[in-house]
Amino acid sequence: MLINQLLNTKGHQVFTVSPEETVSAIAALLYARRVGAFIVADKIGRVVGIVSERDVIRALAQIGPDALSRAVTDIMTKDVISASPCESIEVLLDRMTDRRIRHLPVMDGTKLVGIVSIGDLVKARISVAEAEAQGLKAYIAAG
């Protein structure tokens, strides 16, 4: 299964935040939106980073409570690893496992078209495996 197929099912909605938002505001938004990460985009919509729950926790552990008043640009991951809509789930599962990341923005050139989590990919992979198993059962039963 390709990522564009997954996004067509899951949806293309992506929550973005500005680099100037405070870590405190980001923590509240992560909780309110029930997501694990936000794409950080500049004023013209370019992806400049990604900020996750892990980044917030890391900042609190390293800086302490003062981290909450810092700008998200101070704690975000700036070297964003992304995916292409035409990549397969298997390729992205390997990339995410190797890099120890849980969220990937999906980019069509320079345009942000979605985001996938490792949970999305695992769920889709299980769905494909179950469909294959059902197909084999039907084939055997018909034979």
From TrEMBL:
Matching InterPro entries: CBS_dom, CBS_dom_sf, CBSX3_CBS_dom, Diverse_CBS-Domain
Instruction: Decide whether keyword Iron-sulfur is in the record.
Output: no
One Pfam annotation, family name? CBS
Molecular functions per Gene Ontology: kinase activity
Q: Which UniProt keywords apply?
A: CBS domain, Kinase, Transferase
Tell me the ranges covered by the CBS domain, including all copies.
8-68, 76-132
Protein name in the entry = Histidine kinase
